[in-house]
Amino acid sequence: MDMSDRTGTVRFMSLRHALLGLLAHGPASGYDLTRAFEGGIGQYAWQAGHSRIYPELGKMAEAEQVVVDEAGPRGRKTYTLTDAGRTELRRWMLHWPEQATVRDETVLRMFLVQSLEPDDARRLLEGIAEHCAAEIARLRPVMEAEDAEHHPGDPLPFGRLAGEYGLRQYEAVHGWALWSLERMAAVEPAVG
To answer: How far apart are CA 146 and CA 160, in angstroms?
Structure first.
């Protein structure tokens, strides 16, 4: 939910902050930004389609956080971050919320796994471990390839830090699932 005050300053995480962050890396059109959300950002962090992106860009222009840098054929507009937009992005990035609304389906399942029958709980945990192992196998080569192409002193590729966070998160959840399976096996009565 976008919670703006009268100055247009957004107080909580919103699509606006994601757009400001993307535009901090350079001018982009609504189409370019929509494509960015079809990749890693949309898959792992924040989903948004063009039906939400274009109206938000209009609101951001009204709040003077972006300007139309270039207008092209068929109404294509390229947006550029303004000083006000950069200030809002910085404010949001450096202000860690004291209490955020959390809705994480994976963590909720972790809390509730013990509400299942043991066989179902094992099946769920095995599925989580398999999913995480597959994501680790997919992400690790991507991160290694980016590292191999990176020259010391050059800026990190966009998304590299987030990619490492994702990789480590999958490794942590994979380890948790295996630990949980071991812990459940240790407390179950022996069969036979």
So the answer is: 8
